[in-house]
Amino acid sequence: MVTVRAPATSANLGSGFDVFGAALSRPADVVTVEKAAETTIEVTGVGAQYIPEDPEKNTVGAVVEALDAPARIHIDKGVRPASGLGSSAASAAGAAVALNRLYDRGRSRKELVPIAAEGEAVVSGVAHADNVAPSILGGFTVTTAEGTSSVDAAIPLVVCLPDVAVSTRDARRVVPESASMEDLVETVGNAATLAVGMCRSDPALVGAGMSDPVVTPERARLITGYDDVRERAFGAGATGVTVSGAGPAVIAACRERDRRDVAAAMLDGFAGAGIEARAYQTRIGRGTTFLDG
Ligand SMILES: Nc1ncnc2c1ncn2[C@@H]1O[C@H](COP(=O)(O)OP(=O)(O)O)[C@@H](O)[C@H]1O
Ligand SMILES: N[C@@H](CCOP(=O)(O)O)C(=O)O
Questions:
Q1: Which of 4, 183, 211, 254 has the fewest CB atoms below 10 angstroms from its CB?
Q2: What is the distance in A from the centroid of ligand 1 to the CA of 83?
Q3: What domains can you pick out in the chain, each with its CATH number?
Q4: In the structure, which protein residues have their CB atom closer than 6 angstroms to any atom of ligand 1?
Q5: What pLDDT digit, counting tens, does each position of 37-79 carry?
Q6: Alpha helix ranges (H) inside 37-180
Q7: From the CB of residue 149, how many other CB atoms can be counted at a distance below 10 Å?
Q8: Nearest CA to ligand 1 atom 9
Q9: Could you give the strand order of the β-sheet that contains 250-253, starting from the edge strand earlier in sequence?
Q10: pLDDT score of 292 more than 80
Q11: Which residues form the GHMP kinase C-terminal domain (predicted)?
């Protein structure tokens, strides 16, 4: 039996649509796998009632197929589904790392990224790897068709998750099909600023690069209260605020000393819109870890 802790992640970070990702120190899924003749999946924890246990429909089923590793699988969800915090990816990432060890498949962590991404295709229609990469590797990740680069970064974060669901599949439908040269230049500048900020563990630079003029404004419209949450977070000291993944979670970068105030301000913003929310005071963290030695 192998048990792992697979972290939530935040993809895009504004300027890095389908490319940037960050592992969060909390929350996380816990995935346990045991060899079996046929694959069975049991799901418990946050939002378990909304998650299919049929291997054809659960993200971990595609991972089992890709690694040819049938197993009895238990997923204890700490990451709520349809959150924008890489919930479906956390389970797939955890399953990939755990099954690789259980069956001694010998794949490197980087080789497991595209395998876990197959699970994302099951739920969102696209095998985007910007969530599974940080959930497997940890840190800040840059994922392209050529592979993933990662760097550890010490950046305090707040993610505020309103009590509404947005499916990634639906939120991908509002992404514009094209962008102007002006928007391209702005996005490249922001993305480069953010990447330098990650390499220097500088919350001011990371925050300055956390916006984009193309995708985020469209996604923000799907999140009631977004503008107020953003404004209040900046008022409390956030250095940058954007939609986490496809939403509805909103993510803020900040300095350690401001994190508690930023979390309270974001909760106030959602409360002002009549929406209950939960704030996680978190930071960029490690990738999937083994819990059983
Ligand atoms: N292991 C899993 N964990 C979470 N969601 C899953 C899993 N397997 C399938 N799903 C489905 O994926 C959808 C949530 O994924 P998605 O919309 O990408 O949200 P998130 O941003 O939280 O990953 C839900 O419809 C859920 O039922
Ligand atoms: N790049 C994807 C990321 C989706 O992240 P999720 O946490 O909402 O699943 C996108 O923006 O569609």
A1: 183
A2: 8
A3: 2-151+285-290 (3.30.230.10), 156-281 (3.30.70.890)
A4: 50-52, 58-60, 75, 81-89, 91, 123-124, 167-168, 245-246
A5: 999 999 999 999 999 999 999 999 999 999 999 999 999 999 9
A6: 59-67, 87-102, 109-124, 132-137, 168-172
A7: 15
A8: 58
A9: 240-243, 250-253, 156-162, 277-283
A10: no
A11: 196-266
Euclidean distance between CA atoms 243 and 226, whole angstroms = 9
* 79: nearest Cα among 239, 232, 245, 206: 245
CA distance 111 to 173: 29
ipTM over 0.95: yes
Q: Which ligand is nearest to the CA of 11?
A: 2
Report the separation in Å between the CA atom of 43 and the middle of ligand 1, taken as the mean of its atom positions.
12
Q: What is the pTM of this model?
A: 0.96
Q: Which atom number of ligand 2 is nearest to the Cα of residue 89?
A: 9
How far apart, in Å, are the Cα atoms of 62 and each of 73, 87, 208, 223, 260?
Answer: 13, 15, 37, 30, 39
| Alpha-carbon span 283 to 153, nearest angstrom | 9
Section 89-106 average pLDDT: 98
In sequence order, the β-bridge partners of residue 158 are 252, 281
Binding site residue list for ATP: 80-90
Handedness of CA 183, 229, 19, 22 (dihedral sign): positive
Ligand positioned closest to the Cα atom of 89: 1
| Cβ partners under 8 Å of residue 293, min gap 6 | none
